[in-house]
Amino acid sequence: MQEEEKKTSHFLQNLNGWSVTGGPDSRSDGLRSGMEKDMRKRVLGTFLTGIMLASQLLACAGTGQEEKTEESSVQSGGDQGEALIFTYWGSTAEKEVIEKILAKFTEDTGIEVEGMHIPDDYETKLTALVAAGEAPDLGYLAIPTAYTWYEDHVIADFNDILAADEEYNPDDYLDTAMVYYDDEKIMGILTAIEGTAIFYNKEMFKAAGVEAPQSLEENWTWDEFVEVARKLTLDSEGRNAADPGFDPENIVQYAMKWDLGQVTLDSIAKNNGASYIAEDGTSGWTSPEMVEVVQNVADLINVHHVMPSKTGGDNLPSAEIALQSGVYAMTMSGQWILNNFAQMDGLEIGIAPVPSMGKEDRMVLGSSELAIFEDSDKKEEAWLLAKYLTDPANAPDVYAGGLWMPIRRDWYEDEELIAQWVDNEAHPDEYREFMLEPVRDNGEYLSELYVKNFNRMWDVLNPALENLWNGRETSAETVLKSIESDLDELTEGTYGKIGK
Question: Is 250 exposed, middle or buried (0-12, 13-18, 19+ CB in 10 A)?
Answer without folding.
Answer: exposed
